[in-house]
Write a structure and sequence with these properties.
The structure is a homodimer of 250-residue chains. Chain A has 250 residues and is α+β, with helices and mostly antiparallel strands. Helices cover 36% and strands 22% of the residues of chain A. In chain A, helix 4 crosses helix 6, helix 4 packs across helix 7 and helix 5 crosses helix 6. The interface between A and B is large, with 56 and 55 residues. Chain A binds a DNA duplex (30 and 30 nucleotides) through helix 6.
DNA sequence: CGACCTCTTGAGTGAGCTCAAAAACAGTGG
DNA sequence: CCACTGTTTTTGAGCTCACTCAAGAGGTCG
């Protein structure tokens, strides 16, 4: 994640993407090589389901613009949001490419993606080992974020879970570009999404948001998140931005 | 994980390890090359802390024998177990090798490991790209397991969480060698470990174990797990072993 | 035979859930 | 511009699953 801002950011060949996670640190010749692999840019409206749990997927994606929600569904409709993917994130990389994918992905906003055919991606890895190493690091970073999330789910009360989520989103968005603290950060999440991410009910999320608001800690209203008292939030969650550090260029 | 049993399993050079996750699918010359990199076998007694959250780690490990618990601790002592590592699993791979590690690791049993110095591992990746690709898949599989775990934590009641854990452990152990259903599977976990993995208290784990026992579903006693009614357990969790599929040889 | 874990059971409490229903809001068509 | 419909947010009331506090029972080891 958190690509270092630089004077002359590398471009993703097929897409007009800057500082994309998988490509940003690559040398020019490798970028050129990627042009030869079937890459496609795709744009989809909010609500579109990119892929569905248990289906077979022969593509993966780099998110260029917008938010995508990755989630898993249990038989009776219970839902767990696994990750909110932001621009630069990679989606659809599977441990077993021949097996079904284990989660679904849905666009929360208008979304722009780079699409890779699976065999094409494999081929790229073979030809450009650095890409494979980058992929290992990206996946490892996602795993660390999942660990944060697990710790929230298992060991934090509702108020802390929400505080932690807010700080995480704020930090991840801040790493992607400057954000206007005063105006508030645009967050396209319904209370239901937050509930499904944090293992709560919508109703309880609502009450907890009220508590945070009335405590002067943070306000989420009409799609805008305002952090009112960061020190207090950081204090209550023990938030460390280390989890989102940048990876080495190798 | 789940390496296919084969007639003549590859050996991990320095260690007398068979079917190790990172090496199993490698060709002979690559294995040889690894000999030239600083690898070390290490054995540690139960309870040993391999590494500690927030410390700087310049090694990573392939687990050869025994169980290792990966966990995170919050300021006030709350603990979340992230993963129970079994033989063949890889530990200590970090998204940012220069940053502090974000969790701790402790041996639950006597443990044997292959140790890699960090720069040595990096060097191996550069020289043998297939290793990097394998690493990406291994990490991706771990992430999928973390997703299972998250779903339990967020959206399942205590009984289902424990049932799911039992089925997962049974399946992962089964993939590593034949297990004697009747005798029961050796599980070196205290109720406290289970509680910290599943976001419950020890006391509630105890009560729930009793419920499972009295319901004729599964019994965990004196370190032995017996699955008494797998269909019922599978039914209540919707357990799919897909999550633990083997990865491609590329 | 104590000292120390780990497991077990009881009793009471509370954070978060369910059920139910307003109120605010957004879009749509007349 | 407004009535009409569907979605999202908000609030109330009561319940329950899981937690806290407390204490006894088993096991293990020096």
């Amino acid at each position: 994640m958190a690509p270092t801002p630089r004077a002359n950011p590398t471009q993703c060949v097929a897409c007009p993407v800057r500082r994309l996670a998988l490509f940003q640190p690559l040398a020019g010749d490798q970028l050129q090589a990627m042009q030869t692999h079937r890459m496609e840019q795709r744009e989809i409206p909010p609500g579109t389901v990119l892929y569905t749990q248990d289906s077979h997927l022969d593509e993966s994606f780099t998110l260029f613009q917008g938010w995508v929600m990755l989630y898993r569904t249990l038989g009776d409709g219970r839902r767990q949001v696994l990750r909110f993917a932001l621009p630069g994130d990679f989606l659809g990389f599977q441990p077993d490419p021949t097996g079904p994918i284990l989660h679904s992905a849905q666009a929360l906003t208008p979304v722009a993606l780079c699409v890779f055919k699976r065999d094409s991606l494999m081929q790229m890895f073979r030809e450009h080992p650095l890409l494979a190493i980058q992929m290992a690091w990206i996946t490892s970073r996602d795993e660390a974020t999942a660990h944060d999330h697990m710790t929230s789910l298992g060991r934090r009360p509702a108020k802390e879970r929400i505080a932690q989520l807010f700080l995480e989103l704020h930090h991840r968005l801040g790493a992607r570009g400057p954000i206007d603290e005063r105006a508030g950060i645009p967050i396209p999440l319904k209370q239901e999404h937050i509930a499904d991410a944090l293992g709560l009910t919508t109703i309880h999320v609502n009450r907890t948001l009220r508590a945070l608001r009335e405590g002067g800690l943070a306000v989420l209203r009409s799609g805008l998140l305002k952090i009112m008292n960061r020190p207090a939030l950081t204090e209550m969650t023990g938030f460390q931005s280390d989890s989102f550090s940048r990876r080495p260029l190798l």
